[in-house]
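Handoff note, outgoing to incoming analyst
You'll be picking up this chain. Sequence as last confirmed:
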Amino acid sequence: LGKASGEVCLAVCAAGYQITGAPVMYTCADNKTYTGSGVPQCSPKKCTGGFPSGLGVSHGCSDIGTDANCTASCAQGFNGSSTTFTCQSNGDLAGTSPSCTAKTCAPLNLAAQFATSACSNVSTNGTCLVECAEGYEGAGASYTCQPSGSIEGTPPNCTAKACGSSGVPVDADLLKSGCGGLTTGQNCTVQCAAGYTGTAQPWTCTAQ
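Most recent structure output, in case you need it:
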């Protein structure tokens, strides 16, 4: 703009765009118009900064160029609304990252020898400890709340404790067949000895 008749200028790419080939020369004609052979070939530059970030945030903004838009959203296992980012001519993305909150995994359901109460309110990527239930012994194991909504891990190796003689009736008129050497959860029957009458009763080992 502002050129006199016969003066020339170059048409180049705007900020945020890169030229392919050479700039195009234009000449100011006597009728105050510019003449030239086409326009330069310009392609958008990729943005390299300002990417969406934060807990649980995912995006498709890694490969977009000037003036293009992309979406930032909450990844699997997180709740929140999506937002839009725009690639600016200065090479940075402009936009507000979504606010994502972790979802709570479903409670863990394992066999009776495992204590899972610590895993009843765990959020995505959080961990909890599964221990051996009362009456069992062994080292605990760590479980992780997965983005899919389930808690996963390998159960600990829990061994049933042995019951002693405590709690078993010692009366002479009773027979305690099979009540020795029981472990947690196992049963035996206590019944009347010969010469006595009565109803047999089951006894269960509940080792502490």
